[in-house]
Amino acid sequence: MRLAWLNNQWNEPTRTDHYLMQIAQEVRKTRFRKIESIKRILLEHFRIPFKFAKKGEDPAEAKTKKVEPKSGELPAVNQMWIATVGGLKKDG
Q1: Which terminus of the chain is more exposed, N or C, with fewer CB under 10 A?
Q2: How far apart are CA 86 and CA 71, in angstroms?
Q3: Residue pLDDT, tens place only, 23-69
Q4: Comparing 50 with 19, which gets the higher pLDDT?
Q5: What was the pLDDT predicted at 23?
Q6: How confident is the model at residue 43, as a pLDDT?
Q7: Distance CA 67, CA 53 (A)
Q8: DSSP type of residue 90
């Protein structure tokens, strides 16, 4: 019983977690100009759920699958970052 309660507490944000989620929300809002888009950005979108490894499962192997970009293709996040800071994509 106590262990189940403790596991559930990992998914309950503390005061610090709420502040960090609010900061992330405000940073995300700066990227949009339309009010309709800004209103759709909810605090819950920034909540990170904790997941525990099942019995007998190695926690180190329970990692998320990483998707590798195709050759010569930058991930969308990298392209947005380059566009934001004014960098140029090198050809070749």
Answers
A1: C
A2: 23
A3: 999 988 888 888 888 888 888 888 887 777 677 766 666 555 555 65
A4: 19
A5: 92
A6: 87
A7: 22
A8: P
Tokens 């929300």, residue located:
25
Q: Count how many Cα atoms sit within 13 Å of the Cα of residue 82 in the half-sphere of its side chain.
A: 10
0.90 surpassed by pTM = no
Cα–Cα distance, 50 to 8 (Å, whole number): 9
CB 42 within 8 A of CB 48: no
Q: CA 49, CA 59: separation in Å to the nearest integer?
A: 16
DSSP string of 38-77?
A: HHT--GGGG------PPTT--GGG-PPPPPPPPTT---HH
Asked whether 31 and 80 are in contact (CB, 8 A), the reply is no
pLDDT at res. 22: 92
75, 77, 51: which is closest to 63 by C-alpha? 51
Tokens coding 60 = 């180190």
